[in-house]
């Protein structure tokens, strides 16, 4: 087996298994958002016009929640690096037949795979609210693309943060402080065309908005005029975040 | 000839140094390790042992000097070195959520050991390192010694030409320590080379073919254990027990060349401890003197300085000189 694949296998088996309680939370939380909050708000919020049809709020919310979970799942990349450093496994691995480059890439790819699996399971359980939707092959590309790019961006971001911040507590606090505005200043919970200009402006600088819009485009055929630009911005920002994480990773001392 | 000599060396360093800010942690260290030997790198805590290992295993880049491992430059050819070495770090390391058995198996996967071989090795290592009963237990539930045994055993899941063992027996009980050292010896018999750091001199005497003693980043001695003892050992102690008490004998012995001091033994008056620079030279003189005086020696025992004595003496005397 190729050395990168062996490292990826190790990440999936050891690191993710060690945080299985967190994985369970990541799986259960979106179900509450969709089936509890979604239906509760749907009774207050009238059906939304998406593309050229009316959909209820639950259907609008579901893709946003999946993307938001990708963001939370991606924070595992930073947590995995923390754990490896604390248990001296980081040193043990890079003193073996692996490069630092392979190490960081395996972390990000394992996060992407886990995010995809997580999203698939959420879609599966949320299937009652998705009844009647048909997804085209092009739509599948949008969905997969948004999940992969979202995982790459937020995985790289949390890896870089975990490198610069010295304690685990500070790392968790930073993510909480960062993720809350990212969640609310985005198109995860609401359409941005009717929100105040300042919120709209900030939200359109948020990669979470791009990923949510991309996923909605794939699932609901909601192709906003700004979508091509959003996709380009998400690709560029994801690559940029990956480069920053890779450069920052050179600072990690074994 | 030069090529053959190079092939015989697993490690070669020349003026290897590493500086952390204003501290010179490793100071122009030069030594070589031959293929197939256990090379002991001894020194007190903070002497520079681990820093040297970290340079040799390509984790740290030397500030100056040169080192080759298995013929490759540690500064520029790390990728060629790492697949051929095994490392047991001083810090405990393991996959904390996996069982002992799964830890060993996953490490075998990382080193691309085929499945059947992994299974065989796991059984062998669980048995050798006394981990069979805890094979389904995860490390956080193990004792410190068991975790250390797991960490050492894990490194034998794959074959390496050169092993770096950084104080691998820390936290082990004497029996586990002996098992570990014997297993290392067995690997060396099968062709491996071992670079072994410790500050337990008994261990070094048991396992090492040659040793280097390092302190404050500098090598103080480099040779076989016997030669190091001879060169740096200093004083031997000759225990004498006489059949009868003889007044003035102590003074007569004290006057012999090479005798440094005399202390009374446990049986005051009948037993003496003679401290001599060279026991081989002092013994015939002692026997000649006692024969001339008509004193019968009931028991004679020469105690060579232990490696512990030599080590302490070397570290202390060097420290005094430096201060």
Quick overview of this protein structure:
The complex is a heterodimer of chains A (254) and B (323). By secondary structure, chain A is mainly α.
Q: How would you explain this protein's 3D organization?
A:
The complex is a heterodimer of chains A (254) and B (323). Helices cover 76% and strands 2% of the residues of chain A. Chain A is mainly alpha-helical and 254 residues long. Chain A has one domain. In chain A, helix 1 (3-18) packs across helix 5 and helix 7 runs parallel beside helix 11 (227-249). Chain B is of the alpha/beta class. Chain B has 2 domains: 2-226, P-loop containing nucleotide triphosphate hydrolases (Rossmann fold, 3-Layer(aba) Sandwich), CATH 3.40.50; 235-304, Alpha-Beta Plaits (2-Layer Sandwich), CATH 3.30.70.100. Chain B contains 12 helices and 14 strands. Chain B has helices spanning 2-8, 49-56, 78-81, 100-110, 115-128, 144-154, 174-189, 201-207, 225-232, 249-254, 279-293, 307-322, and strands at residues 9-20, 23-34, 38-42, 64-69, 72-73, 85-88, 162-166, 193-198, 210-215, 218-224, 236-242, 259-264, 271-276, 297-303. In chain B, strand 7, helix 7 (174-189) and strand 8 (193-198) form a beta-alpha-beta unit. In chain B, helix 4 (100-110) crosses helix 5 (115-128) and helix 9 crosses helix 12. Chain B is elongated, with a radius of gyration of 24 Å. The two termini of chain B are 44 Å apart. The A-B interface holds A 1, 3, 6-7, 9-10, 13-14, 17-18, 20, 83, 87-89, 91-99, 254 and B 54, 57-59, 79, 82-83, 85, 87, 89, 91-98, 102, 106, 109-112.
